[in-house]
Amino acid sequence: SLNCVEWSLLPPATEEVVAQAEQLKGRFQGDPSFEYEYTEINAEDAERLFEDGKELMIKEETRLVATIEQIDRAVGIIPRGAFVKTPLGSVHENRNFEGLSLTEAKKLSSYFHFTEPVNLKNKTLLEKALLDPSTDFLDSLEHDIPQGSWTVQLEKGGTVVVLRSLLWLGLTFYHVPMTKQYGYVYFGTGEKNLDLPFML
Q1: CA–CA distance from 197 to each of 25, 101, 200 (Å)?
Q2: Alpha helices (H) in the chain, listed in sequence order
Q3: Which pTM was predicted?
Q4: Residues of the signal sequence (predicted)?
Q5: Tens-place pLDDT, residues 130-185
Q6: Where would I find the beta strands (DSSP E) of the chain?
């Protein structure tokens, strides 16, 4: 939105756009038409990213789309059991989900990344045998690298569990135990905390 009254949808992010935006550093300008120049990019990366002879520029609107995609992939999370996988492989919202217990809600292992699993494929057969295929079909937060990239806190006298990402500062996830209420919001600068491994 340019006037905070009329809103329009952003275009979907492609892998090429995400790769281009990852090369940019610094904060957003606030102008969707602002064009970034690739000043600190080496010749090999420039050749790989722009094989078809395009200029070394990217608009802020495009960078915003790619950053939102990166944040959703890295820290978009759901509680365990909120979605189920059918034997045919389709994923649906679990209508029987009544929320996590307070004890379960305080564990990182009770939350999953809501993206295509990566670490799950690397588990041994013995580890997979202990998982429920209908609910444990995504990657758990407890195995995120680096270890300690999430904080778990209780708010409002222990009635709300809040998870915060230290990798994408400004990402806050909440869940009200024993209810279907959960969600996440991002209020940050759009910059990944690349110093996190040195801070832990």
Answers
A1: 18, 31, 6
A2: 15-22, 43-49, 60-75, 102-105, 125-129, 196-199
A3: 0.80
A4: none
A5: 787 788 888 888 888 888 899 999 988 888 999 999 999 999 999 999 999 999 99
A6: 35-37, 57-59, 77-79, 83-85, 91-93, 111-113, 150-155, 160-165, 171-175, 182-186
